Amino acid sequence: MNNIKDEIFPLADLIEQELQLFQNHEIKIDFMADGGALIKGDKFLIRQMLKNIFETILATAKHQLTIGLVQNEKSVILSIKDDGQGTSSAAHEIDRLKKIMELHDSSLTVKKTSLGTEIQFQFPR
């Protein structure tokens, strides 16, 4: 990795902490997680990344945000789905997030769906 602090931590805990900041938001937020999913990386950068993406997505979502966290033998996958149309500021934020993910030897993909947008973060185990 590139000069980032290397820690192993449960991603679900970090997501739950960040979602507490948005508990009074008018958008319904569903979070389903494999609580044992550990990732390795800079906890501060990942926390900032989560905060920024949640703020951006909640600004464009209409009614619901669905967050899922699963793991398999090779990776931990965070999926965030909304029912909004996205904005140019969301596209700019995605570019910034991709850079953070690259620092963690991880990937980020964005898909438009019939209901909105799905962003998937994939971290190595």
Can you walk through the features of this model?
There is one protein chain. With 125 residues, this protein is of the alpha+beta class. The protein has one domain (7-124): Histidine kinase-like ATPase, C-terminal domain (Heat Shock Protein 90, 2-Layer Sandwich). It is built from three helices and seven strands; from the N terminus they run βαββαββαββ. The strands form two sheets. A five-stranded mixed β-sheet has the order 2-4-5-7-6, covered by helices on one side. A hairpin with a 3-residue loop joins β4 (64-71) and β5 (75-82). α1 (11-20) crosses α2 (43-60) and α2 (43-60) runs antiparallel to α3. It starts with 6 loop residues before the first strand and ends with a strand. The mean pLDDT is 89.
Which features would summarize this protein structure in a list?
Heat Shock Protein 90; 125 residues; 7 strands; two-stranded antiparallel sheet; 3 helices; single chain
Strand order of the largest sheet: 2-4-5-7-6
Average residue-wise pLDDT:
89
CATH architecture: 2-Layer Sandwich
Helix-strand pattern, N to C? EHEEHEEHEE
- Give the helix/strand class: alpha+beta
Name the quaternary structure. Answer: single chain
Number of domains: 1
Number of contiguous helices:
3
- Residues in helices, as a percent range: 25-40%
- The radius of gyration is 14 Å
Which fold name fills CATH's third level, the topology? Heat Shock Protein 90
Could you give me the name of the CATH homologous superfamily? Histidine kinase-like ATPase, C-terminal domain
Distance between the termini: 14 Å
Count every beta strand, where a strand is a DSSP E run of 2 or more residues.
7
**Biggest beta sheet summary:** 5 strands, mixed
Under CATH at level 1, the class stands as: Alpha Beta
* Uncertain ranges: none
Tell me the β content.
35-45%
Q: What would you call the shape?
A: globular
